[in-house]
Fold this protein.
Amino acid sequence: MSGARAPDAALDGARFDPVSSELFSREPEKLKVLAHPLRLKILKRAQISEVSAKEAALELSEPIGKVSYHVRVLADAGLLELTRQTPRRGAIESHYRATVSLHLDDDAWQQVGFEGRRLMLAASTQEWCADVMRAVHDGGFELDGALVANAHFCADAQGLEELREALDAYYERLLAIEAGIAARVAAGEAATTEVNVGMTLYEGQASASSHAPFFARQGGRAFPMIPEDLPVSGLPGAASPDADGLGAPTV
């Protein structure tokens, strides 16, 4: 879970505009291009710095032919742009950078419709879950300060709005922290550790074992994340998790 790759000088500190609804209105075929797990990984990687298909294949542990195909699809759709070409033993290695972010504005999220949202969420959460399980089995949660938390409860309209506002503010704070890190790295002031932070808010029933809110921090303590002023009766009944609830990695 650690890495020392420095941001590309040309892209260091670059910020991408959110994907707007106009993109899908003008070119709706881009939606299908985005709705693929490997293409999402490649696009995310190309947001960090320019990358070739060969480099992406090595970093993502995927066959070069497979990655090259998806790079071409992204480039043909205008989601990647060619930045430079390097001669390599009689061949040409092409390097690309992302032209858009994976941050969709509110209008764009509505524009893609239910099926589009379903496809993009399926691709993104599949990747996310695989990354989390890989970190579990590789010791990524041994990082000092690593955090696991979840909460499941019934919310009224006011509570939902308060949750949205809290998560919006939290995400804006994450972006500010990320910008500060990029500035320090660019100035040569800091070494880095590669980390992942995620959050979700959705409607749905939880499995019996996840009804009880949970909070655990490496280097700290683990305890049920139940607010002191919330009656236990206000939570769905919880069942104890299986003795061996970890399972095999889904990677």
